[in-house]
Amino acid sequence: MAAEGKTIDALSQFELVPVLGPIGRAVGFSQSNAHMLLAVGLITLLFVYGMRHRALVPGRLQSAAEMLYEFVEGVVVGQVGHEGRRYFPFVFALFMFVLFGNMLGLLPYAFTYTSHIAVTFGLAFLVFVVTTVVALAIHGKKFFGYFFPEGAPLWLAPIIIPVEIVSYISRPVSLSIRLFANMVAGHVMLKVFATFIVLIGSLGAVGIFGAALPLAVNVALVGFEILVAFLQAYVFAILTSIYLHDAVHLH
Amino acid sequence: MIRLPFAQLWHAAALALLLSQAPAALAQHVTAPAPTGSVQTNAPLPGQQGESVAVQADSDRATAVREANRTAAEYEHAAREAADAGGMPQLDFANPLTIAQVIWLFVIFGLLVFLAAHYLLPPVAEVLETRRARIASDLDAARDARAQAEAAEAGQRDSTARARAEAQASIAAATQAAQADAAKRAEALAERLNAQITEAETRIGAARDAAMGALREAATDAAAALVQRLAGIEDKAAVDAAVSRELSARNMGAA
């Protein structure tokens, strides 16, 4: 698919294809959703199987599960404080879902659901709704004071309030585009260099040596993408925590 | 404070699912009134350039009807074609799978949040809490043990010091007693010796006096005899006086 007709086709990897035959087609269940389900399954497996002994001295899988737990817990409690503990499952699910989505996408033949703006925006929108609901539930009408900081001169209100509202509303946009753009850029680069390997490699004996360069680039890129996969999940989780902090404490 | 009930999240997700499917279903009914039979298009004949406007309108209608008749498979195909044409599949919102994907995302992510909150995270929290408690209690026990050891060591040091002090005291007492005893005995001995010395001196003095007395008598007798033999004078008193004088001149007078 990569080098059909000697052209670089870096985008077809993002195409949605229904799976599970006619049933999947009827309910619009694509390979993207199948990978989401796989990610949830793997996360569940890691925690259920890894924690099956509940050992005082953890084994490898239990260590991994505990490390992930404590990492996200540190992020949530560090940002929101101890009252943020109730939102921990939500942030944890976000972090794991994004992390596993990014990591699974790096496997050959796998689909990266976090490379779809609809998916990342769906998650970011969920974060937006949850933080807003939390803020309204805790602070009621006082929440709207968030858009006009106390002590600011009143005549600045016509400028400050629209700016604050725009910045508040742009949160889900930036949150979703950041993850989407990172994943798309990485996968397009991988695909482009992979295509180079095939194209240059088909030039004969010289080509085999020539193909070594894009291959080396791709090896480095995969390492880089693993870093990005983790980093973007972390960024998603910590920004969610920061928004939750704002919702709980109003600045 | 609020508690986010997961049941409500579920309901919201289910509602969103229903709502999102409604417009699609409606649209299908509205825009696909009669997908029966094939659509006749008036294909332009060669040379009929004058009717091009009407032909254009007809072909537009034909396109619209074809669009309405699309099946899911055709959508898929169209999406692939759009992607091949250079568009990003992610931005192809005409593809129903793009939106369906998000609905499924909410369902699957909701499932993950539910699982995480109820089945995945509590065991970890429990294990971590148990370990924290265990470590804390072990540390406490270690601290107690150390305190005990320190107390024992202090006690031991104490008793050692006490024993040493006692020993030193008894040594000092014994030494003192011995010294006092020795001094007393030495004193007694010296006293006895002094007494003996004094007695001996007295005896010596007496003996010397006696000897001196005897010497004077012998000297007087000898002198008187000499005087009588040589001069025929018998003056006992004069001889006595002369001997006395001579003896005292020689510093040997009667003691």
From TrEMBL, chain A:
<keyword id="KW-0472">Membrane</keyword>
<comment type="function">
    <text>Key component of the proton channel; it plays a direct role in the translocation of protons across the membrane.</text>
</comment>
<keyword id="KW-0812">Transmembrane</keyword>
<keyword id="KW-0375">Hydrogen ion transport</keyword>
<dbReference type="InterPro" id="IPR023011">
    <property type="entry name" value="ATP_synth_F0_asu_AS"/>
</dbReference>
<comment type="similarity">
    <text>Belongs to the ATPase A chain family.</text>
</comment>
<feature type="transmembrane region" description="Helical">
    <location>
        <begin position="117"/>
        <end position="140"/>
    </location>
</feature>
<feature type="transmembrane region" description="Helical">
    <location>
        <begin position="87"/>
        <end position="111"/>
    </location>
</feature>
<dbReference type="Pfam" id="PF00119">
    <property type="entry name" value="ATP-synt_A"/>
</dbReference>
<keyword id="KW-0066">ATP synthesis</keyword>
<keyword id="KW-1133">Transmembrane helix</keyword>
<feature type="transmembrane region" description="Helical">
    <location>
        <begin position="220"/>
        <end position="244"/>
    </location>
</feature>
<feature type="transmembrane region" description="Helical">
    <location>
        <begin position="152"/>
        <end position="170"/>
    </location>
</feature>
<keyword id="KW-0406">Ion transport</keyword>
<protein>
    <recommendedName>
        <fullName>ATP synthase subunit a</fullName>
    </recommendedName>
</protein>
<keyword id="KW-1003">Cell membrane</keyword>
<dbReference type="InterPro" id="IPR045083">
    <property type="entry name" value="ATP_synth_F0_asu_bact/mt"/>
</dbReference>
<keyword id="KW-0138">CF(0)</keyword>
<feature type="transmembrane region" description="Helical">
    <location>
        <begin position="34"/>
        <end position="51"/>
    </location>
</feature>
<feature type="transmembrane region" description="Helical">
    <location>
        <begin position="190"/>
        <end position="213"/>
    </location>
</feature>
<dbReference type="InterPro" id="IPR000568">
    <property type="entry name" value="ATP_synth_F0_asu"/>
</dbReference>
<keyword id="KW-0813">Transport</keyword>
From TrEMBL, chain B:
<protein>
    <recommendedName>
        <fullName>ATP synthase subunit b</fullName>
    </recommendedName>
</protein>
<comment type="function">
    <text>F(1)F(0) ATP synthase produces ATP from ADP in the presence of a proton or sodium gradient. F-type ATPases consist of two structural domains, F(1) containing the extramembraneous catalytic core and F(0) containing the membrane proton channel, linked together by a central stalk and a peripheral stalk. During catalysis, ATP synthesis in the catalytic domain of F(1) is coupled via a rotary mechanism of the central stalk subunits to proton translocation.</text>
</comment>
<keyword id="KW-1133">Transmembrane helix</keyword>
<comment type="similarity">
    <text>Belongs to the ATPase B chain family.</text>
</comment>
<keyword id="KW-0066">ATP synthesis</keyword>
<comment type="subunit">
    <text>F-type ATPases have 2 components, F(1) - the catalytic core - and F(0) - the membrane proton channel. F(1) has five subunits: alpha(3), beta(3), gamma(1), delta(1), epsilon(1). F(0) has three main subunits: a(1), b(2) and c(10-14). The alpha and beta chains form an alternating ring which encloses part of the gamma chain. F(1) is attached to F(0) by a central stalk formed by the gamma and epsilon chains, while a peripheral stalk is formed by the delta and b chains.</text>
</comment>
<keyword id="KW-0813">Transport</keyword>
<keyword id="KW-0138">CF(0)</keyword>
<comment type="function">
    <text>Component of the F(0) channel, it forms part of the peripheral stalk, linking F(1) to F(0). The b'-subunit is a diverged and duplicated form of b found in plants and photosynthetic bacteria.</text>
</comment>
<dbReference type="Pfam" id="PF00430">
    <property type="entry name" value="ATP-synt_B"/>
</dbReference>
<feature type="signal peptide">
    <location>
        <begin position="1"/>
        <end position="27"/>
    </location>
</feature>
<keyword id="KW-1003">Cell membrane</keyword>
<keyword id="KW-0175">Coiled coil</keyword>
<feature type="transmembrane region" description="Helical">
    <location>
        <begin position="98"/>
        <end position="121"/>
    </location>
</feature>
<dbReference type="InterPro" id="IPR050059">
    <property type="entry name" value="ATP_synthase_B_chain"/>
</dbReference>
<keyword id="KW-0812">Transmembrane</keyword>
<keyword id="KW-0406">Ion transport</keyword>
<keyword id="KW-0375">Hydrogen ion transport</keyword>
<feature type="coiled-coil region">
    <location>
        <begin position="183"/>
        <end position="210"/>
    </location>
</feature>
<keyword id="KW-0472">Membrane</keyword>
<dbReference type="InterPro" id="IPR002146">
    <property type="entry name" value="ATP_synth_b/b'su_bac/chlpt"/>
</dbReference>
<keyword id="KW-0732">Signal</keyword>
